[in-house]
Amino acid sequence: MLSLGIEEPRWSALLSDTCSPKTLESNPKINTIPANTILELDCRLLPGQNPGEFIKTLETIISDNHMEITKPPGLSPAVRSTDTTLYQAIDSAVRFSF
Fold first, then answer.
1. How much is the average pLDDT of 72-77?
2. Cα separation of 73 and 71, whole Å?
3. CB 70 within 8 A of CB 52
4. Contact in structure between 26 and 19 (CB atoms under 8 Å)
5. Helix (H) or strand (E) segment spanning residue 41
6. Rounded to 5 degrees, what are φ and ψ at 8?
7. Alpha-carbon separation of residue 73 from 19, 46, 88, 97 (angstroms)
8. What are the backbone angles phi and psi of residue 94, rounded to the nearest 5°?
């Protein structure tokens, strides 16, 4: 799977946990230094991943003692059945493209 993500970068987000910036909030006043800033990330975890471990990994990567990471309620990987007609069609299309 790792080689697929390297050889075909377009598949990378489907093969790993991802985060992208969603919103950034700070002081709306001009010419002031904000006391606080909030960055919301939209994180997608692969099925079977532990949200708590994922947050620990983010804390390690960011490594800033002045920052607090909070988990919104319901942060868990979305797991769906692969025993559907749609999934089988997608699987066939992907296999055909390689």
1. 64
2. 6
3. no
4. no
5. strand 38-44
6. -125, 80
7. 17, 17, 32, 38
8. -70, -45
